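Incident review: delayed structure delivery

Summary: a single-chain prediction request sat in the queue longer than the usual turnaround. Root cause was a stuck worker, restarted by the on-call engineer. No data loss occurred. The affected request and its eventual output are reproduced below so the record is complete for anyone auditing the incident later.

Affected input:
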Amino acid sequence: MMPDQNQLLAFFWSGWTATWPTQLLALIWIGWLVSWAAGSFFSARTEKHVRTWDSRAYRVPIFVGAVLLTPWTARILGEHPLWHAGVGGTYLLAGLTLAGTLFTWWARIHLGRFWSNAITRKEGHRVIDTGPYGLVRHPIYTGLIGAMLATAIAVGTVTALIGALLIAFGLWQKARMEEGFLSAELGADAYGPYCRRVPMLIPFLPPRRPEIGRV
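Output delivered after worker restart:
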């Protein structure tokens, strides 16, 4: 027997989306996902990209992490939070989540038509080192990692925490692959000085020259 619409809606709004203020986290992420998908139409033509098979190194941990972070995983497993952040703490962490997602949008708008969801070289691609890209080399990943960790701490379940860490690992792995790809495509003389000047993911840390590997 197929579940009715009320049952589906009840399942969708379950787990940590069922009560306020953790519902606020879900609303932030829904708003970000919808706007991010809508913005994907504004991008320059792709000239070259990393092979899909190679991209599994970061896609798999990001996908698994996203599944673990969803409220439905905790609901199915019958998980209980390890701690309760409280109303004030949840609002604070929701504010950090929102700040992280807004940081990703600042970076995406600043990157303009060079943005891509995958690791690619766009038509006319060049090194962008201003705005958020003057703080870190991968500000979109930085914003996402910060937002995911804030959400996981607010939720407080084991699966949410593991999920956020897996997503962070996947984005770090993607950043490494992207730097190897861009160094090869744009030339070490163009990308290398930027890597030596600006930290990879954490602002204000002394930058380290990345290990450029094959992608």
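Verification: Residues 210-215 have pLDDT under 50 and may be disordered.
Action items: add queue-age alerting; document worker restart procedure.
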